[in-house]
Specification:
By secondary structure, this protein is mainly α. It has a single domain, classed as Amino acid/polyamine transporter I, CATH 1.20.1740.10. The chain contains 21 helices and 3 strands.
Length: about 575
């Protein structure tokens, strides 16, 4: 038997039988009910949420700290320096970092209030508009499953760094097939073993990436100060010659501005996927406490890993470096760190960096499969995807959603055909701007969530939630820049002599796609209007204090160490 309580605006408990709204949470009597399953049944679809909280604190904290740290920084930073110069790249990364921070501050507050399946997709469906959740959910799922094969192929090519046939000067075809197969199988097995195995794998990958970027930053600083074998003290030499800002794709002051704007997209690629943290909040233990810690870690991650990383790269390599301009491929040779260390006379680092890049690419595929399966599961749980995808095993694994998402890994073999590879690259490029649309939707959803809390008399300052006193300014800041980038990301095609139909299509196709998804769902479901703040559902299926416990405190020394530092 459960006793229901309603949380009033002043925090008092009201046990009156006559309530204007459903209970804010439900406190259960274990002796009579024996479980907390009632809150797990969706009030609209009557489907039970079968996910289980088996992800530990250290898993979530390391995913938050280094989950998306990878090829975007190790390799993509070179393109950023080439297009915008050292100062332009630094400003671009700082700006996008502030956008990500604003988005995470918005997302974390909703995650702490409602740590439930579907993450930001369900938040949009609940607090913005049902059609918004449908549109963004399917767009993000499509983006995720298309990115899966590209990450598998990238990881396979990175392995080829150590397996180049001198006769053909490329990876043997049979070897590439083997690499793709092994990586795809391992990626799928990790996810099918369950969320705990996934958490452990991402924990290990995160440690590898953190150690690598720490080593690169320290080594880069040593080389910059003249500590390399050639004892050349670089300092900020390249900020003066050739300069702090690079012109791209045209010359002059206009080119320096457009070069900086182009780098905003490359910086966003480095941060993309950070929002997938919300997909884990339904499977992490003690979610409100752990989400609060993860959100606070993000600021230091942005400041140290990304800002310091791009600053060091900009000090080591000039934007007109011939090796940087001519670098191609997915391996370590394309990394500006390798270019700088080779010039300084340090020859052992390419293989080390390549190993780190390999772990990053594989981790991206691994976490991508996890996120897409939970997106599809969350859509099905709320009636926005076929009901079959909401089926789970006894251990909480969304087996049907995971199996269906896994099928798209087979597209990795398209890379073996030149024509099919072109199609795969084209499809994956369509997802490039989806990240900004997703971030914008998250922040817009938060604004409605905030209005709903105010209309229902819910205090957002409750100690068990995540609260940022600067809101809603961070949300508005993130929305502003997301809209700017979405609208103007294809500016190059409008420059005289640079028109490209395919580039225009890639830059803007996501806008009509998300509009068509929204309008189609809106028409099909009865053309529902946007709900007023007082009509927002702030109560149903919200986990109560029963989830705010740590069921498995660490007992080993290493476990206690990670508990203290994470």
């Amino acid at each position: 038997m459960a006793t229901e309580y309603e949380k009033t605006s002043d925090g008092a408990d009201n046990a009156s039988a006559e309530k204007a709204q459903p209970a804010a949470y439900t406190v259960y009597d274990d002796a009579q009910s024996g479980s907390f399953d009632d809150v797990k049944v969706d009030v609209h679809t009557k489907i039970r949420d079968g996910l289980q909280r088996k992800m530990q604190q250290r898993h979530l904290q390391m995913i938050a700290l280094a989950g998306t740290l990878g090829t975007g920084l190790f390799l993509g930073s070179g393109k950023a320096i080439q297009h915008a110069g050292p100062a332009g790249s630094l400003i671009a990364y700082c700006l996008i970092g502030s956008v990500v921070w604003g988005m995470i501050q918005s997302l974390a507050e909703m995650m702490c209030y409602a740590p439930i399946s579907g993450g930001y997709i369900h938040y949009a469906e609940r607090w913005l508009h049902p059609s918004a959740g449908f549109a963004v959910g399917w767009m993000q799922w499509y983006s995720g499953v298309i990115s899966l094969p590209t990450e598998i192929v990238s990881a396979s090519i990175i392995i080829g760094f150590w397996d180049i046939d001198p006769v053909i000067n490329d990876i043997p075809r049979s070897h590439l097939i083997a690499y793709i197969t092994v990586l795809a199988v391992v990626c799928c097995l990790i996810n099918f073993f369950g969320v705990r195995w996934f958490g452990e794998a991402e924990f290990v990958f995160a440690i590898i990436k953190i150690l690598l970027i720490l080593g690169l930053i320290v080594a880069g600083l040593v080389v910059d100060l003249g500590g390399g074998p050639n004892h050349d003290r670089i300092g900020f030499r390249y900020w003066k010659n050739p300069g702090a800002f690079a012109p791209y794709p045209v010359d002059g002051s206009v080119g320096k501005f457009t070069g900086w704007f182009t780098t905003l997209l490359q910086a966003a690629f480095s941060f993309s996927g950070v929002e997938s943290l919300a997909m884990a909040c339904a499977e992490v233990q003690n979610p409100r406490h752990n989400v609060r810690k993860a959100a606070r870690l993000l600021f230091y991650r942005i400041l140290f890993f990304y800002v310091c990383g791009i600053l060091i790269v900009g000090m080591l390599v000039p934007y007109n470096d011939p090796d940087l301009l001519n670098s191609t491929g997915d391996g370590a040779a394309a990394s500006p760190f390798v270019i700088a260390f080779n010039r300084a006379g340090i020859k052992a680092l390419p293989s080390i960096i390549n190993a780190g890049v390999l772990s990053s690419a594989f981790s991206a595929a691994d976490s991508g499969l996890y996120s897409t399966s939970r997106m599809l599961y969350g859509l099905a749980l709320r009636g926005q995807a076929p009901r079959i995808f909401a089926k789970t095993l006894k251990n909480g694994l969304p087996v049907v959603a995971l199996s269906f998402s896994t099928l798209f890994v087979l597209l990795s073999y398209m890379s073996l055909s030149d024509g099919a590879q072109t199609v795969l690259n084209w499809l994956s490029n369509l997802t490039s701007i989806a990240t900004f649309i997703c971030w914008c939707t998250i922040c817009a959803t938060f604004l409605r969530f905030k209005a709903g809390c105010e209309a229902h008399g819910i205090s957002r300052k409750d100690s068990k939630y995540f609260y940022n006193r600067f809101q809603p300014l961070p949300a508005y800041w993130a929305i502003f820049w997301c809209v700017i980038v979405v609208l103007f990301n294809g500016y190059q095609v409008f420059i005289k002599g640079m028109w490209s139909t395919s580039d225009f299509f890639i830059a803007y196709i996501n806008i009509p796609i998300v509009i068509l998804l929204f309008v189609g769902h809106w028409v099909f479901t009865g053309r529902k209007r946007f709900p007023r703040a007082s009509e927002l559902d702030m109560y149903s299926n919200i986990p109560g204090p029963e989830v705010d416990v740590d069921p498995s405190p660490p007992t080993t020394k290493i476990g206690k160490f990670f508990r203290r530092v994470l």
